[in-house]
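Attaching the record inline, Q. Sequence:
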Amino acid sequence: MPYPKAAPDGTIGAMTDLTDLELLHELAGTAETEVDRHLRHAVDWHPHDYVPWSRGQDFAALGGRDFEESDSDLSPVARAALVMNLLTEDNLPSYHREIAENFSLDGAWGYWVHRWTAEEARHSIVLRDYLTVTRGVDPVELEDLRMTQMQHGFAPGMNSMLLSVSYVTFQELATRISHRNTAAVCDDPIAERMLGRVAADENLHMLFYRNILSAAIELAPEQALAAVYTVLTNFAMPGSALPHFRRDAVLMAKHGIYDLRQHRDAVVLPVLRTWKLFDRTDLGGEAARMRDLICSFADELDAKAIRFEESRDRALARDAARRERAVAGTAVR
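Structure, as predicted:
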């Protein structure tokens, strides 16, 4: 068996690299366990139950009227977040291709690839139906963005099993946080219920990948931790190639939907702590070096988050001052 052997000092880390096929074979039992766990906890739900159909009306092509800005009850930040979350979910064919190529379509791996894809499809269905029926955003602009997103595809360069599972571990948790925080700014109990349901799915997906990677760290610590470090230091959300992504991401960060602090404290650190990465004393050689680099990177994220928070506070203070001056000027007139 290709498990790492302990050195005389009790540390593990040095071993011959395993191929993707060897990793998939050795982790097949873990995949089966995780599929079984997922099926025990997953909730079957139907997108139509989360959409307020009575608020819908025909568009011009069917004798109604097309979207107008005044139709939307959503704030600019809620609209940006919902569109970003939907477009992230939209690129499902690319995601399916990525995990199918890096995992396998055999056994538990194949079952998971198809089950995960089917569950993720619900998310894009329910988000689009909600936004269209409530006229939350311009459906023409939304469709144009969908076409741009899907034609661009998604190829994050995670061309190995360990890189792929590392990426989705953190990305699924990041998406869960984004959905939860978006619900808080929508000012609509229906949207809050819908996004809570989607976020619960994302959490279950994250658990599958996180637990697979936990087993991989025990199996091939050098390779697994190198993959984690590569993903963390190059992490980008799937929608990063979209037009206006930076603008909308800044808006979302400014209003606390997803920012560097949340990325570090609610995504990166919880996963690393689950793996007990900060406390392990049994890693040696390259595995220990990669662990130290990951811990150093977490510290760097903290420093960057502090700088961002200070900048955000100054920007919010300037915005508040401008509003106060505008109100005062109106009162004088």
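The longest helix spans residues 285-332. The radius of gyration is 22 Å.

More tomorrow.
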